[in-house]
Predict the structure.
Amino acid sequence: KALPLAYNRDMQEDKEGLFDTADTLHSSLKIFAKMMKTIKVDVNRVRDAIKRDYILATDLADYLVKKGLPFREAHTVVAKLSEHAVNKHKSFHELSLSEYHKFSPLFSEDVYNITLESSVAARNIVGGTSPQQVETALTRAREILNGTKWNKESHSEE
């Protein structure tokens, strides 16, 4: 459709959006780099905020699945449990076992073993959040940044 055979400067117009995106990304990364040099994370505040959230809902659904409940039903149970917890202004760990039992008899005392730490550690797959996976990713990133692994392998699709 009227594409140039040898003179490809005619194709530059279609790349304007790409060039704008690259410029925006470059500017954003410069700002991000400066921000990361000075960022201070209050770990206790983050942990408290997460505890007040319902971030472990998926882990609770997985827990019920391991006890034999189909995931669709587990999802429904946890959705209702979450709504109950929100209405009572409680976190999952603040709910009593009898409150859990109102939603499923499959809950037992071991439900309290579901923690932020166990949730993070459970994702031990490539790219996951487990400490082992994070350490592997950090090691690889350091090797790439240091130039010791800057080759075809570090750019191949996995």
In short: Residues 26 and 32 are 10 Å apart (CA to CA). The chain has a mean pLDDT of 88. The helical segments are 16-38, 43-51, 57-66, 71-87, 97-101, 116-122, 131-145, 152-155.
